[in-house]
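#structure-requests
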Amino acid sequence: MRRSSDSAQTEPLAALVAVLAVVAAVGTYATVYGRALPGQATAQPTATLDHVADEITAGGVARPAKLANLERSAGLSLNVTLRAATRAWSVGPRPPRDAPAAARPLPVRTGGRVAFGRLRVVVWT
């Protein structure tokens, strides 16, 4: 008589769970990769916010001087505002009131100190 440990088969429920995990992982990867493609990252304020945050931070702390290095996107207008304590830095034209915006908290280096700050990005056509 054969023992169950001698067979090379997998339980059907375990196989189904493994397939669903792989499908979920590939779906998540495709969604994140699609948002990171050049040209599409500037179409949504949230994706643009992530891109701008990556461009102006070093070691997880925003540097206001790096705002001047932001690239312009063809066909889109962009306004970036970084606030910390009583100071604010802004790049780009004044946005319309109904333009889509995204914001998030971000530590900001002001002089020799790091202060609580907020990064806001507005994108419109």
